[in-house]
Amino acid sequence: MPVMKDARPCSIADALALVGEKYSLLVLREVCLGNGRFDQLVRNIGAPRDVLATRLRRLVDAGVLEKIPYSERPQRFQYRPTQAGLELEPVLMTLMAWGDRHLRKDDDRPMVIEHACGHEMLPVVTCGACGDRVHHDDLTAHPQALGWTTKGPTEAA
C-alpha cells in the first residue's frame, strides 16, 4: 500500500493558487484590455471592492501586475501587466475560445479579439520545437518530482 503523501507537486496547482482565485483572471482580462483603474475594474468585473483590492495586492506582490500612480491628490493608482502578466494573456485567449466553443452559441459571443493581421485571433497550441499543432495523443508526460509517476506516488521501498 502506498505511503500517504502530499498532493502531486504541480506547476498548474501553483499557478492556480495565484490566478485561480475568484476574480483574478478577470482582473488580468481587464488590465490587458487597458482598464487598469480601480473603479473601472470594480465596474467591469463586479467584484466587491475589498475582494478586488486583495486580488490586486496579491497579483502585484506576485509580479503579475505593476501598480503605477496616476494622481497625487488624491493618490490614485492604475494597474498594468508585467511581462509575467502578459505571458498569461494566451491562457486568457485559450480559455475564452474554449468558452465560446463549449458554453455559448456562435451568435452569442461577448467579444472577438482581432490579430494585427486583421483576422480574428484563434488560439492554437503548437510545439515550440517543430511548430506542429499539439494534440492530446501526441503528448507523453515525464514526471520530474521525486517519488511520483504519472499514476501517482511511488510505493515506499
Q: DSSP strand (E) fraction?
A: 5-15%
Overall average pLDDT:
93
Number of helices: 6
Q: Label the overall shape.
A: globular
Q: SSE string, helix = H, strand = E?
A: HHHHEEHH
Top keywords for this entry?
single chain; 157 residues; mainly alpha; two-stranded antiparallel sheet; 37% helix; globular
What's the short version?
The protein is mainly alpha-helical. 37% of the residues lie in helices and 8% in strands. The chain is built from six helices and two strands.
Explain this structure.
The chain is mainly α. Helix content is 37%, strand content 8%. It has a two-stranded antiparallel ribbon. Helix 2 (24-32) packs across helix 3. The longest helix is centred in the middle third of the chain and has 15 residues, at 89-103. It is globular. The N and C termini lie close together (11 Å).
Secondary-structure map with pairings?
Layout: H1 11-19, H2 24-32, H3 38-45, H4 49-61, E1 65-71, E2 76-81, H5 83-86, H6 89-103
Antiparallel strand pairs: 1-2
Helix pairs in contact: 2-3
